[in-house]
Structures are given as C-alpha cells and as structure tokens.
Design goal:
By secondary structure, the chain is α+β, with helices and mostly antiparallel strands. The protein contains 4 helices and 5 strands, in the order H-H-E-E-H-E-H-E-E. A hairpin with a 4-residue loop joins strand 4 and strand 5.
Length: 154
C-alpha cells in the first residue's frame, strides 16, 4: 500500500536509509587509540585545528571497522556543543555498534577539561541504554592526541 497517510494528511513520512560508498573490506579497522587518531587526523581540517574547536564522531560496526565519521559540531576558540541526541540519532540510523568521539583544543593543549570529562561521561551513559558502546573520547592537536580510554578516565 502506498503511503497515503503521509500524502493525504500532511503527516511527515519517516524513512531510514543508509548508503555506503565503500566495501566493508576497504574500511579502516580500529584496534587501538592510535588507529582512531590516524583516521581522525586524515579527515580533520588542519587549517582550522588551531583556530576553531570541532567535535567529530566515528561510528564502528561489530568488527570495529569504520562505518563513517560525522561532524557533530563546530564552535569557537574555547568550546563547542555536542548534543548526545544527535550523536545517537546518527548511530542508530547507520546501525553502529560503538562510537569514538573526538574534538580538538585550538589552544594546543591535550589536557581534558572538566567539561570534556562530564560530556564524555554523559555520552557514555546515554549509549549504555541504547547498547552502543563509547570506546574512547579523544582530544587531538597538530602534534598528537589524548585518549580517555588509554588513561583509564572513560
């Protein structure tokens, strides 16, 4: 039956679609924080890494292969806002099993702030209810990265 309800009543139709442009065998495998850093570092706009704080999310499948990366938010020099609802809406849409979150500090510091720790905890807790695991929360700059998982903070 054609979707007459949406057409005749003005009610929005919701359709979930995921189209991958790469074969599963071509997707990067994430085994360590260094693997994740290398993927984030490849896609990060290095013209903005010391100028504007940005927040990205890596989505992984059951085999820890990268399904995709989403630019979740861009902010100013001292911060950006990442909405867990938007993060998990995307994760659910593409059937991600786990995620890795990452942001940069334009100051160049790799030390997490209290806000960084609180947001990571909030995102981890939200994922627990959805059975989507937060594997790591990372901070990157032009010289390297900080991994919450490696440091036992997550």
């Amino acid at each position: 039956m054609e979707n007459l309800v949406a057409r005749n009543t003005g009610i929005a139709e919701i359709e979930l679609i995921y189209k991958s442009k790469s074969k599963p065998s071509d997707r990067p495998l994430i085994s360590t924080s260094l693997d994740a850093y290398r993927v984030f570092n490849q896609i990060w706009n290095h013209n903005k890494i010391e100028l504007q704080e940005q927040f990205k999310v890596m989505f992984l499948n059951q085999a820890n292969k990268v399904i995709g990366i989403c630019d979740t938010s861009s902010g100013g020099i001292t911060g950006t806002v990442a909405d867990p609802r938007l993060i998990y809406a995307a994760a659910l849409k593409i059937c991600a099993v786990s995620i890795i979150i990452c942001h940069n500090h334009p100051s160049g510091s790799l030390r997490p702030s209290r806000q960084d720790e609180e947001l990571s905890s909030k995102i981890k807790e939200a994922g627990r209810f959805l059975d989507i695991k937060l594997l790591d929360s990372m901070i990157i700059n032009t010289e390297g990265y900080f991994s919450f998982a490696d440091e036992g903070i997550l």
